[in-house]
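Predict the 3D structure for this chain.
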Amino acid sequence: MKSNNEVATSPGNSLPRGAWLVVMFLFLVGALNYIDRNMLTTMRFSIIDSIPMSDAQFGLLTSAFLWVYGLMSPLAGYMADKFKRSHIIIFSLIVWSLVTWLTGHATTFNQLLVTRALMGISEAFYMPAALALITDYHKGPTQSLATGINLTGVMLGSSLGFIGGWIAEKHTWNLAFTSLGVIGVVYGVILCLFLKDAPKEETVISSVPDDRVKTGEKKISFTDAIKNLFGKPAYIYLLFFWSLLGLVNWIIAAWLPTYYKETFNLSQSMAGVYATAYLWPVSIVGLLAGGYLSDRWSKKNPRARIIVPIIGLIFAIPAILLGSTTTVLAITVAAFAVYALTSKFSDTNMMPMLCLTIDHRYRATGYGILNMLSTITGGLGVYVAGAMRDAQVELSSVYQISAIALIVCLGILFLVLRSATKRKEPR
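Done. Predicted structure below.
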């Protein structure tokens, strides 16, 4: 009977045993991650009734989380490269679940602020480790789809954030945090028994030919990681790409309900429906479709991981322009649906693109740095868009500028493609 660390050798199957089971485990972890972080915003009135605070203070609770989360991401990625990724994931899940439970016992604004900062620290360790672990298990023509499935868990968690508001309304806001905290701790204990790192023999060879180094032959260090990553032009291109893409995505998501309300004279509730009801399911389809397409194409051309996001942006750019210029509601809805669908081609292929361009030893560190810049620029984008509105700039103009930013993203991806083309194919 084969052990858990043995590789399945059945015909046509080169995946390590349990590769898809790992994706399923992390799908649920990702969902919990985003439910726990987002549900605070859905119970604003219940929290303020219990702990009086200004709107600025309530906004600071989310800002503090994002700032700490972003700043901790590079270190979190490095830790996932230095130590066992599965251990980092389990540690992150249990700690942020304990923090979630602790949040339910806060009685002052300062206590809430501290727990949100602790949430940012603990949750930062999840995503770089999770995506790196998935690409350790899925190295071939299942890599993008496996990544996309994991990210659908994130989307599901985002869409289920309303659970916190519902529990707060029916019972108390404290119960929402304490109950979900307990669920997370229990699930973390279960993962201790089942979640393992990929077999070492499956992670020996890097996707980058000139970085073929056996694990352990070179000591992993943060200084070497920075030199290694920033010594590759393709990685620097991806930094700019991911940061600018994050800025655009946050601007569109944060201000779309307002755009619908003001442009089409909708009620607040209906504007929210038009802005969010179709975006989550369409985004999930985009993640899965982009992953499936790039996986199929990569069997003949490994650079499909880059080409598919390029195709996605080619459709997303005119969609934003159309949606922000038309006065027909149905066309606007359809246009932003196309944007939500095709922009996700980049999300599902981001880690696979890293696997094509950087040393396999520093995948998680590389993603952690990307995550930091994307979070910071995303928050900056939301603020800048608000400042432009204060300066009497219409949201339609803000979105058109966003489309121009996506054109820059498209150009950067062509630079990444050219850089990857210069490399020799791995045998």
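Residues 233-264 form the longest helix (32 residues).
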